[in-house]
Amino acid sequence: MINRQRQILSLTPHHAATLVDVLRAWTQQKGDAVGFAFWQDDKQVHLTYTELDHKARAIAVHLQAMRWQGERVLLMYPPGLELIAALMGCFYAGLVAVPVYPPRPNNNITRLLSIGEDAQAKGILTKVSLENSLKQVSKNTAFEALPKVATDSIILSVGEAWQNPQLTADSLALLQYTSGSTGTPKGVMLSHGNLLHNLGQIYQRFGHSANTHVVSWLPPYHDMGLIGGILQPLYGGFPVTLMSPVAFLQKPLRWLQAISQTQATTSGAPNFAYEMCVRNIRLDECLDLDLSSWELAFTGAEPIRQETLERFATTFKTYGFRREAFYPCYGLAEATLFVTGKNKDEIVFNHTSQSLVSCGSPSDDQTIIIVNPESREPCAAGEEGEIWLKGASVAQGYWQNPQETKATFQGALASGTGGFLRTGDLGYLNSGELFVTGRIKDVMIIRGQNYYPHDIEAAVSQCHPALSAYWGAAFSVEVDGEERLVVVQEVERSSWRRLDEDGIIAAIRGAVSCEFGLQVYGICLLKPGSIPKTSSGKVQRFACREGFVCGGLDVVFGWELAHAEAQRRREERGEEKEKIVDGLIGWLRDYANHHINSRLMDERRCISPHVVLDFGNKGLLGMQVPSCYGGLGLGYTDTIRIIQQLGAIDPTLALFVGLNNVLGVRPILMYGTDALKAELLPILATGRELAAFALTETGAGANPQAIQSQAISDGDGWLLRGEKIWSGSAAWAGVINVFVKHQQGISGFVVRRGSPGLRQGAEALTMGMRGMVQNTVYLEDIPVTSAQVLGEVGKGMNVAQDAMMYGRLAIASACVGGMQRCVQLMWRYSQRRQIATGKLLDHPIVLHRLQELTCAITVVQSLVMRVGKLLDAGETVPAEVYAACKISAPEFYWQAADLLVQTLGGRGYIESNIAPQILRDARVLRIFEGPTETLCGFLGARVLKQGETLQNFLCQTLGAVEVGTRLRDAVDKIRGRCFDGANITVQRWVYHQVGKLATEAILWAVLDDKSAINWVKHRFDEQLQEILSFNTDNLLFLNGQSLVHHLNEYTKTIGDIEQNLAGEAQELDELLRQSGENPQFIPTTADLPASSEIQTWLKTWISQKLRQPISTIDVNRAFAEYGMDSVTAIELTQDLQEWLKISQPLDATIAWNFPTINALANYLGEVTKENAVPSDNNLDDLSTTDIAQLLSQEIAIARHRKPQMK
């Protein structure tokens, strides 16, 4: 608890006239003491008072030589110690400091330019590391001509020539530009006297002393971050530990860790920061926290909410935080910073419908009154009005703005008493304590920053031509205790009936984010002429807000962030992201040279742990996860570029990273609940845990609809039961996305490592990709709840198919890099290898192969990059295009890998020469995420049956009308030529061939390169000719009997060999083994109807479902000929299972395994009764052995059956 009786130590320079005097005094009295520390990447850099004094004097000498005394200079620095040195350097030189956020590449600098112009800045102070980027963003602007001084390049020894500028308390120290109007910025003029008076108030009211230690992550450019976080510790002569705001926002736990590790006594932030801690910090992360030293936790800058403070105090009480440490306070930039604060140890709450927190009372030399803003008469106690104040901390006014200065700083009561600062805030006094209730102005306070509606409205009105240039409103609403931005805007009459809703929403969000760094919570596009207005024609923001909240607006299209978070992220790729990606690619290349040994990982069948850790630290495992969850927030194109690079380095690593991003993280990011995302995304994005995808089963590979694993109802949740195979990274994963079937369909669940019933099985000994573990996963009645559901219950295949589609794009991207690596090695070898005729490179066969592969690389790279750009632009890409990516890229990559081995000759067969591993790794990509043959059949069937989707994409989205027309004409020819009387076997062959043809068409449609266009056109024509020259006599389709005959002949010729010689002992000695085994689930099977009855049921089902006259249904005709697809096949299986009343799920592929009514009915009718568990009625017919076996089975099941709660 703060001891309010502490005496201010004699060292406190409260009689100093300027901040220069303050630092000089501390330098003389305790120069070697550390005054400032900055945390970055878990490391601290320090600055003593003497070091700061030396730096400040050196900077001042440099600035004094420029004869700028009394002038304004912009301070453009990232958070850190150099900003503090520059600030003090300005004071030491007698300059007026104007701290501003440094510009970011590809970011609108209109506000910075406005500040620079308003302040009449003479120059810019910055760091060497920012000089180049500053020059780039300032090109062709007023900043380009301003002198720029990199203060960290100034030699310290020049400081010996420093001359004290002889400032006074009235000397202007800095202009404080808070967030607000970008069009007409207002710089608050703060003198040294203003600053010292306010710092003295803070020192006394906070109970600070020489023993105080502050931690601050607040933005160091104004208000609490600058004055409270930097100048207050300087004033008091006690240490401060600083952090970047980004460090806190990325991981709020860092704030509390800093307090704990430094045993800080004072720290604070706006209300939202405490809320973020409660929401985002997991308790298992807090085990080492010690917050017992935290004596004063101030909060202000935005409405203070009792609920937030109570939740924070309750949550962190276990770790030493005391509720009485909270210190609500009130302040504003126009009063330097601090206005009122508590003088007691407990918070006083006003228990009304909306709990308000007292902000305390002013100091004795400050006056606060509550005034009716209309009559300018003082309000009675407890009556709400505008907050007016007077005192030595009140600023001198707005820089070069006498009109606004008069209106704000020279408020006068009706009685004539004047000299008051009109805050624009609403509140009331109760027993001398201030309660702040809102704003009299339209200013929105969001996360402690001020935003003016008309600025946001102006930006929105200009961001899209379909929006009205005049009629719109911006306001804030409270969502979960936090103020969020809403925009309503009328649309133009010429546009409202044919709106590009997604494009407009993206434009509004982008404009607001770019201009103001704000996230839009809600957007309403209104019918022309419908926005609420006053009688004089002004937009009524309050009425717009009420209409939004109550649903009373005439909305054409509405969008809310809460509903849109589960949709695909659309991020424009800008220079900033491109630089990040370029940096990552450069890092990967260097890292691959020095820290990756692919052969070693391949031989050991394990990715080196340091690689996984380093990839996680670099963000490669959460590339598309938004930055608010700790990810890189990259778009699709940027992600593709990185995966291409990984494909060139090591296909195993490319697959590992792609799997984690696409199959592991994406389902959670796109379909997880908010709570699930908040819990898992931060640990997955940073690689602290891996994620896996469990869909494939023994009987469900290329056809995932055939999965047999089940979700069995269990109270309010389910029990997951089944077995998954070949799940990549599952044995390493902390999170597995599991897909199972149940009565409502197929559902996806997120299962954490350590869940009861989750058991990892044996690793599959794969031919390639050996560094990445692929293993069996056993689901032995894993309990799950609705909170773990991905998407909607029963619609899990939507989640899985979404992930697999993007997985196909990722695989194609990796293949591009792999192909480039193959060609690179072929070229390197062939230009050095001498053969009898000269260089191998000069051989026409080698040249032809290189040319072919170069064209293949060009077409596939064009396809994946075009898809990435479309996705970034918010366009919909049909499933056919993802299939084409997966069909083409792995096939070309396999050819490239095979030709690499062939080109290297004998050297291509030597493991140490890279090629064999590339060949083995490349092979599996033709199978993962859908084998080539399956996808070709799918694509061909889609083109032949539902070709409009692909036609629209080719002709409209890509603008490739010629290609679309050629493909449509070709399909018409094929349909007429090959489908006339064709049987199902021929039909499937045609599907496959048309799939290959459509793939060539899609590759053709995305190309710009002339030579590549000619190459792919030739392939298209060849493929079409092959299909049109089709003749059943050209195809050798062996029937079952002839195939059996051939196989029997082989057995006679070579025998039937199965090696049984024992290898290494793998099992634990039985004397060391635990007793008991894991029994398998043994379902019961009822007696089935006769095959004739089943035939009748099947004919009736087909007649009803596929709309076929029952008289035309031939029991020997294939289901596919009646129009059955994979979806209706699943429906048939489920309906058939229910009709037969059997407990064991039927194989979802049964309609394909037995493709006619006759075959399926005979199979079901001949199911052997010995596989059925006998009923009670025939137990008497069983032998003693039979009964013993049944009893042991039942006991085994009972042992593993969970007890049911009654």
Structural topology:
Elements: H1 19-30, E1 34-40, E2 43-48, H2 49-64, E3 72-76, H3 81-93, E4 96-100, H4 110-119, E5 123-126, H5 128-137, E6 148-150, E7 172-176, E8 188-191, H6 192-205, E9 214-216, H7 223-236, E10 240-242, H8 245-250, H9 253-262, E11 266-268, H10 271-280, E12 296-299, H11 306-316, E13 326-331, E14 338-341, E15 349-350, E16 356-357, E17 361-362, E18 367-371, E19 385-390, H12 402-409, E20 421-430, E21 433-439, E22 444-446, E23 449-451, H13 453-461, E24 467-479, E25 482-491, H14 501-516, E26 520-526, H15 541-550, E27 555-560, H16 561-564, H17 575-595, H18 598-604, H19 609-617, H20 636-649, H21 651-671, H22 674-685, E28 691-694, E29 710-714, E30 717-728, E31 735-742, E32 745-752, E33 758-763, E34 774-784, E35 789-790, H23 796-832, E36 834-835, E37 838-839, H24 844-872, H25 879-904, H26 915-924, H27 932-945, H28 948-957, H29 961-978, H30 984-1005, H31 1010-1028, H32 1040-1054, H33 1091-1105, H34 1126-1140, H35 1150-1153, H36 1157-1165, H37 1184-1199
Parallel strand pairs: 1-10, 3-4, 3-5, 5-6, 9-10, 9-11, 11-12, 12-13, 25-26, 28-31
Antiparallel strand pairs: 1-2, 7-8, 13-14, 14-17, 15-16, 18-19, 19-20, 20-21, 22-23, 24-25, 26-27, 29-30, 30-34, 31-32, 32-35, 33-34, 36-37
Helix pairs in contact: 1-2, 2-3, 6-7, 10-11, 17-20, 20-21, 20-23, 20-24, 21-22, 21-23, 23-24, 23-25, 24-25, 24-31, 25-26, 25-27, 25-30, 27-30, 28-29, 29-30, 30-31, 33-36
Describe this protein with a few key phrases.
1206 residues; Rossmann fold; GMP Synthetase, Chain A, domain 3; Butyryl-CoA Dehydrogenase, subunit A, domain 2; 16% strand; transmembrane; flavoprotein; AMP-dep_synth/lig_dom; lipid metabolism
